[in-house]
């Protein structure tokens, strides 16, 4: 055996391109086009870098506390910091959740078209999985998840399809799988979905995962979190403390708290994106595109006559980046287009009009 | 089977206490008592929080590049960014390294007294391991690592013993284990050890891990890195991109670059700690303590007549925190004392004098 024979071999997740050219219109990684709350800037201004000499709080107590208080106010729940796990973006949180919850040896279930990181984590942690085909119109049918399994992962709203599932359907999945953990990944829920947080007290098998990267305009701050019963959260903490005790800096923690305290700004920037999304949807229709009803900060569009990959390549030549997934086949003729500012969307539609006119 | 039967059960690493009381003299987690370079403050001042809306660079190119340049200047190596892996502190880096390199099914080797996170990662990733007893005086004998194994992990200088191994001994371990990866964990090397970085070109089985948490006064910034051959580093990158694509914020990356560029400040603050350490060692001897020759920013002390645990508990009542490890038995009568400022050490010795006088 040689030196390189025992390296872990795995096909990693491939994130969207991060072009360094500043002139690019970047509609390919579902970032928020608006800056975070000015309260985040204030926190940065006040932060004393001398304190970097000390380790941060490994328990991230201040942010866990604040998240519990925030959601208690929003959903009338009784969460405490023991119900909150915070990590380096929701990818870190989901990675720890997969390691913590899916050890039965049975296959876990998730849709065939969904966040393409789920099968990467399952492969990395040697978790068996079955993908469940979406129904017509990219719909998730809860009945398809009513079978013996090691756990369930549902992105709601789903990505890249943009389609949201009602809480009645989520509740049926929870009831049908009461002996295993059901993760509801709500990365995009603030753009029109309905959060399962209000189901937490009734369903102890539920873990809800959210992120600061989309609706809070803080993809660069790397903050995600899970909410669940304290026994599930404690098990996640034990796994986290077996990987890396100190994950978030105190500056990240303070920025996270500041964002939560500026609800007005949060609501306004979400509303702006929703209104741009509705306008963009109409415009796409006028140009011969179709898309499902989006509850996210992006649209999943397909053109009636022009192949998606051609539009994708053309837009790149115009310095406009959108996301194209070559597989699975059911979505190979779709483009995922992040909702940018009105100006960015206007530039996109101008380019598309020119292109389609020439066809 | 019930909901809680398939949770991952693991005994996590327990970090040193992080008392929230500001009056505490904190000599228990090997933090640096001096602030980071003022260049780090400058970076923070200039950082535009509006950019938090975007994801950071997943490849952390700027910092990888700068680290390669820095070490090429220091050791006359030919490193490029392809030889550098950056993570959320060296714990994150080591965790990824264990997952990436130790898949042979054979037991890996590390000393019985060393960083107590190694066996936690091995347990988490189901890696078999044998601990190798230290020799008299807490010495590592390279001959003890000359056996069929799945890999080797050596902290150099070792913790909590403070003892450094010469590069001749490291080279023997590398030669005897040329078909497996040897990780040399150099968290404390800047305080008097000799880095194995200069051995990288000759030994393709070597991976050197370092951190910003100790000598660069940036425990709170969460930056660690590994240096190695590009095939080993690429394999680590593949594992990282299967866990979390975006780990470090652009602010952390920029702070890491800034620290590297202020070599004067780095040297001066390391020298100050070494000089305080030498003075503290003499003072401990006067008070009836013994300790090995330390090449780290802490001392590992044992008293000739008073049990370590009693001194530990007494110091706590004086708001002075040091670290005490109950096991293994060979170190149960030792205390690990971080080197603080001269003022902090004076306060420690005043408290110890009072205590020992009363005995």
From TrEMBL, chains A, B:
Belongs to the class-II pyridoxal-phosphate-dependent aminotransferase family. Histidinol-phosphate aminotransferase subfamily. It comes from Eubacterium uniforme. This is Histidinol-phosphate aminotransferase. GO terms for molecular function: histidinol-phosphate transaminase activity; pyridoxal phosphate binding. It catalyses: L-histidinol phosphate + 2-oxoglutarate = 3-(imidazol-4-yl)-2-oxopropyl phosphate + L-glutamate. The lineage of its organism: Bacteria, Bacillati, Bacillota, Clostridia, Eubacteriales. Pathway: Amino-acid biosynthesis; L-histidine biosynthesis; L-histidine from 5-phospho-alpha-D-ribose 1-diphosphate: step 7/9. Homodimer. The modification N6-(pyridoxal phosphate)lysine is found at residue 214. PANTHER family: HISTIDINOL-PHOSPHATE AMINOTRANSFERASE, HISTIDINOL-PHOSPHATE AMINOTRANSFERASE 2. Residues 22-352 form the Aminotransferase class I/classII large domain. One of its GO terms (biological process) is L-histidine biosynthetic process.
